[in-house]
Every structure is written in C-alpha cells, then in structure tokens.
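Fold this sequence, please.
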Amino acid sequence: MNTAISSIRNLGPAYEEACHRAGITSAEELRAIGADAAYARLLQAGTRPHFIGYYVLVMALQGRPWNDCKGKEKEELRKRFDMIKADVRPQHSSKLLSELDAIGVRATPADLKVCEPAPR
C-alpha cells in the first residue's frame, strides 16, 4: 500500500514533493526510514536545511502536533539536526552549485534561473 506522505499530520504537499525529490514516495516508506535518515536524504536531494522543517518531521512521525516540541526535547532535536546537517553534503547537478555549497551558500538549480531584464 502506498499512502500519500501528505496524509501524515503536519506534512503537506510541499513536504511530500521534497520527499519525492529525495526518492521517498510513500508514508509507509517515510515511517520505515525514520526522521533522521529521511531528513538526511532531503538534504542530499538539495532541500535547504531548516530546523523547524526537521522537528516538524519528527513530530509528524510521532503523531504529535508540530509545535509540541519544547524545552529539553527541542534542545536534543537541535543537536541531532546539527549533526545531520554537518554530515550531509547535497549532490549537485552543476559545478557552480557544488562550489557555492563549499563556501556555505546552499542553492538549487531554480536559484540559478536567468531572470528577464526589467523593462526600461
């Protein structure tokens, strides 16, 4: 059975789309992988790291409201998030994206789109 990721409380269509880009295609697969491994895969696929996005995922997989994370638990999750972020380097589709990441600028191919010049 392949249940939509967005069927999990707190995870909407944008999170589901990010999971799909990371190769996670169902709620069952996401639960089996677990929050830490899934978040690492999201980062490898180019998702920008964001602590709230991480702890929302943790809370969602526990069936808890996203804002239920507080105090010591939140501090511990922050440590786990920082470790995941430090260990993961995204796979880039271009040398420019790789070089930007090396200097601490997380960008995606969409960030490099050519913009139309402003009318004169």
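The two ends are 55 Å apart (CA to CA). The chain has a mean pLDDT of 88.
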